[in-house]
Amino acid sequence: MQLQNFTTAISSFFYKDLSIQDPKNWKEAFLLFTKALEKVKKKKVVLFLDELPWLATKRSGCIQMLDHFWNAHWSKNNNLILIACGSAASWMLDHLIHAKGGLYNRVTKRILLEPFNLKETEEYLLSRSIRMSRKQIAELYMAVGGIPFYLREVKKGESATQAIDALCFTKSGLLSEEFTNLFYALFDQAEVNYRIVKEIAKSGNQISREKLIDAMQKTSGGRINKRLKELEASGFIRCFIPYGKRRRDRYYRIIDEYTLFYLKWIEPMHISVEGSYWQKVANTPAKSSWAGFAFENLCFKHLNQLMRALGIHKIAALIGTWRYLPKKGSKDFGTQIDLLFDRDDGVITLCEIKFSDQNFVVDKALAKGLLLKIQVFEKHFGTKKQVEMALITANGFKKNIWSEDLIQREASLQALFS
């Protein structure tokens, strides 16, 4: 069928829809295209292979013939541009970007198509006459991310809650079953990759490589490494090393908003509630807990905007997270830093990220906890730099006696739209 489609396109473009005999394989198909190219030597031709991983199946010989014809014929043709596209990012990396055969180092330009950020999401919705407050856009983004294909389903006049209910909690909703379809379309070993993201989500969206391997019941990490690279290349997870740790102390977190939302809310429901489920859980502790993780992810995806809001964008800095777990039996306090900036001007900015629907208030208990974080960090990180605390909130915070001397910098959700 793919060969027939290819022949139809050649017939339409080069031969004014005249009937052409279908090739038996990709060698004949590309030879047909090569001969057709000779007819239009003075015209620019773009050969766009959409979803190449689906064309180049294991027994098709497509990638081998692409290798041969590019090197033997097409690369010498100045009027030809070849564009290969594929949503299976790991396949594209293995067979094109990092190809070891005849296509090694043949790629002249790479385009990584990424989701919209918050500002681009706002502009896209406005282009469709959909007006939402930035708080509403952020709530929508934390559930479905910046994928235009998903955002296109939002209807004029809907609130974020209504849009999420329609997309995720109705049987006809685009995202009610999209997750399973997506994984099986992208990955050969979808079940393994699915288990990996479930384990990361179950651990509070942060798990070490060692614990992940144990959870997957594998004695060796060799086979799981490729699955992790696939998920990372496809934008589902991200590998990070807690600040001050060694490279082997790798951790993983889910960065795809829809994946995190699906595993937490959609999968457990099995679409047993129609229509207004998201509205019903709006004020529950479970939603508040999820929103905290999702807002933290949002901040990590908008670090440039965040640094500008904190007033440190002109200072070179190393960025990371940090945690201290005391040994069993120790009287030391453990702590975790959501985000830190180790700056070249002799200051380390520790960031506390808090999500709330109202203006956030730093009370006596929280102030005591934040002071303890600073003390634990200074003691166990072993730095001579000045350490300061910054607060990042969804809706700003009310200054009081507890925050006055403690919070040196602040940023809110609005800053992420810059």
Please give a structural write-up:
This protein is α/β, with parallel strands linked by helices. 45% of the residues lie in helices and 15% in strands. The protein has helices at residues 2-14, 26-37, 52-55, 62-72, 89-97, 118-127, 134-144, 148-151, 160-168, 178-186, 190-202, 209-215, 222-233, 257-269, 277-280, 285-300, 303-310, 364-381, 401-404, and strands at 45-49, 80-84, 207-208, 237-240, 251-254, 317-324, 335-343, 347-354, 360-361, 386-393, 397-398, 407-412. Helix 2 runs parallel beside helix 4, helix 7 packs across helix 14 and helix 10 crosses helix 11. The radius of gyration is 26 Å and the shape is elongated.
Write a brief caption for the model:
The chain has about 425 residues and is of the alpha/beta class. The protein has 19 helices and twelve strands. The protein folds into four domains: about 1-95, no CATH class; about 120-175 and about 270-295, no CATH class; about 180-260, Winged helix-like DNA-binding domain superfamily/Winged helix DNA-binding domain (Arc Repressor Mutant, subunit A), CATH 1.10.10; about 300-415, Trna Endonuclease, Chain: A, domain 1, CATH 3.40.1350.
Q: For the CA atoms, what is the radius of gyration?
A: 26 Å
CATH topology grouping of the largest domain: Trna Endonuclease, Chain: A, domain 1
* Domains (count): 4
Structural class: alpha/beta
Low-confidence stretches: none
What is the CATH architecture annotation of the largest domain? 3-Layer(aba) Sandwich
Overall average pLDDT: 90
> How many strands, which pairing sense, and closed or not: the largest β-sheet?
5 strands, mixed
Helix content: 40-55%
CATH class of the largest domain equals: Alpha Beta
- Alpha-carbon distance between the termini? 47 Å
Main β-sheet, spatial strand arrangement: 6-7-8-10-12
Shape: elongated
Number of strands: 12
Number of helices: 19
Percentage of residues in strands: 15-25%
